[in-house]
Write a structure and sequence with these properties.
89 residues, alpha+beta, Alpha-Beta Plaits, four-stranded antiparallel sheet, 3 helices, 4 strands, elongated
């Protein structure tokens, strides 16, 4: 939790970050919706199936730290998202 707090505190100014999101395969809608809502900071998006029912998404982001934090929080608020991790580069 301490590391997570440090990451969030460092989201100021223009930053690069990697956000990983895991979810059930049948819950793609929030991923697509949020990817389009934040398309101005999404530089790369990679989708991969972990197994028959779960997926992982990797987002390489570049832009205003507040917007990166907003995208991360938007994923965290989604009911069926399993996990969200952010790494500031």
């Amino acid at each position: 939790m301490l590391e997570d707090t440090k990451e969030k505190d460092s989201m100021v100014g223009n930053i690069g970050a990697v956000v990983t999101v895991t979810h059930r395969q049948d819950n793609e809608e929030p991923i697509t919706r949020l990817k389009h809502a934040f398309q101005d900071i999404v530089k790369t998006h990679i989708h991969s199936k972990i197994n028959q029912t779960n997926c992982v998404e990797l987002f390489l982001l570049e832009g205003d730290g507040r917007k990166v934090a907003s995208m991360t929080k938007a994923f965290q608020k989604e009911e069926h998202i399993k996990s969200v991790k952010v790494f500031v580069l």
